[in-house]
Design a protein that fits this description.
This protein has 214 residues and is mainly beta. 2% of the residues lie in helices and 39% in strands. The radius of gyration is 19 Å and the shape is globular.
């Protein structure tokens, strides 16, 4: 998987990243027998838990025609599980995660989450852009890490089913308002997860801003 981060976004410009996870079964035919009707690709949604304020959080499971499954929650855009077939066609989860929202609400190492606005550390929690100095929320000693105290991994994103006949697809969107965690500009982020029939999990990131930001 390619690790993507929101870096150097300029006002009015659309920035795009893509991460792809591919899992292929070895030496086994996953296609249905000739004449057998193929199951349609699908996206299932279910309750995953509730935030401390009572806000509901959902889990979305994308399934392709060979049975591969990717489960994503709209809390932090977390990839909760990725069940892929082995050489014998048996499914196994190949990512680390928790079985319920409660595990993610405790301190944990960003398992499968979207991080932002900035991935990695910003030293001393400060940066200068266009001659203006900004002070960020510090959550890693004196540093700002992965977006701060309440980064993209700790917010509930708006979810929408954008599946096509070709593949199940989930869209998550979030508006990070000007000044959130100390960052400048209203940043509109969009992440789309697509599970193809080639056993690829595609993750597309786009973002726009009304002010220069990192």
């Amino acid at each position: 998987m390619q690790v993507s981060l929101f870096s150097g976004i300029r006002k009015g410009k659309l920035m795009r990243w893509r991460g792809v996870v591919a899992a292929f079964a070895c030496g086994v035919a996953l296609m249905p027998a000739c004449g057998q009707r193929q199951p349609k690709t699908r996206l299932k949604r279910q309750e995953f838990g509730k935030m401390q304020n009572g806000a509901p959080v959902e889990l979305f499971t994308l399934t392709n025609k060979s049975g591969m499954e990717a489960a994503v929650t709209n809390y932090g855009g977390i990839l909760v599980s990725l069940k892929t077939p082995d050489r014998n066609g048996r499914l196994a989860d190949v990512v680390l995660g928790f079985d319920s929202l409660d595990g993610y609400l405790q301190p944990e190492p960003y398992f499968g989450a979207i991080v932002g606005r900035y991935a990695n550390r910003i030293g001393h929690g400060t940066f200068t852009l266009n001659g203006v100095s900004y002070t960020l929320a510090r959550n890693n000693g004196e540093n700002a890490l992965h977006g701060g105290i309440k980064g993209f991994d700790k917010v509930v994103w708006q979810a929408k089913d954008v599946s096509t006949d070709a593949a199940p697809s989930l869209e998550l969107t979030y508006l990070s308002k000007d000044g959130e965690e100390g960052y400048p500009g209203n940043l509109s982020a969009r992440v789309v997860y697509t599970l193809t029939d080639d056993n690829e999990l595609k993750i597309d990131y786009t973002a726009t801003t009304d002010k220069d930001t990192v």
